[in-house]
Amino acid sequence: MDLTNRPRRLRGDGVRGLVSETSLEPTDLVAPVFVDATADERVPIESMPGHERVPVEDAVARVEEVLATGVEAVIVFGVPESKDETGSRAYAEDGVVQAAVRRITAETDAYVITDVCLCEYTSHGHCGVIEDDAASDPDLTVENDPTLELLAETAVSQADAGADMVAPSSMTDGMVAAIRGALDDAGHEDVPIMSYAAKYESAFYGPFRDAADGAPAFGDRRHYQMDPANRREAAREVALDVEQGADVLMVKPALPYLDVVADVRREFDQPVAAYNVSGEYAMLHAAAENGWLDLEATARESLLSVKRAGADLIVTYFAEDVAESL
Ligand code: PBG
Fold first, then answer.
1. Which end of the chain has fewer CB within 10 Å, C or N?
2. From 199, 221, 285, 307, active-site residue
3. Is 8 inside a domain boundary?
4. Looking at 252, 265, 285, 307, which residue is catalytic?
């Protein structure tokens, strides 16, 4: 038996760190923060243990909690005071995200990213403008081109409020170009765009839709978000966003799509982000609550695997807990 090669030689405690290929740092992580204009106190999010919707007055305190763990970036989601057909509170100057971001950027050093989408703001819960009789139409589709203008307006209003980076998540064709053009026209040429470039129509978003009150009132998102069956299509989607000027390329969800993360890492030079979504968080918590999994170990292993697949940064509800344990 020839055992010249013994991989176990490099697994001892003294050497493991030296040969480790992947590391996880608090500065790789982005913590989601939910700000709720309808709340006057913090409301726990049941399906996402440890997370809360906070009133605008508490946004700064919430972000300071994140910063205290070593995580330096947040992505802000809003629950508006009211909703309408065109999601007008998404791009209102005094909208919930705009108001929160003004305070957070004035009072903290956090790097503030904003999600650019309409689903939390539309009465129908879809990520854009829809046709009048859409509810009865099984082939319901968001109207792509009229939505672009509203997304651009949303991104500009968020940048005006002080957002450091905008992250369009609606999977509208042409959204990156529309937002880039509008940001530049408004003097925000230094605000980068992190595009949710390959975002799948995933069942793992369930808890988020409770958290942000953004579930579609009818139908689903399969006509605009990607089919989970498709891998090569992700490369085409991402290439389009790169042509339009995306600065950071996001794949979402993370764990069920590590092949896609790896593809994007290999095929493109831009930084790659992955979104470890609400369902990925909820399932580890549920298993841990039953005593079936070790929460801290599985959370850390999950994030490490996302980085190993090629992500530079990870948006994750585990950000604070994992950062504290590092
Ligand atoms: C808005 C948006 C969603 C998520 C992030 N931005 C919901 C969706 O597309 O249905 C999901 C995040 C998560 O599940 O953690 N479009």
1. N
2. 199
3. no
4. 252
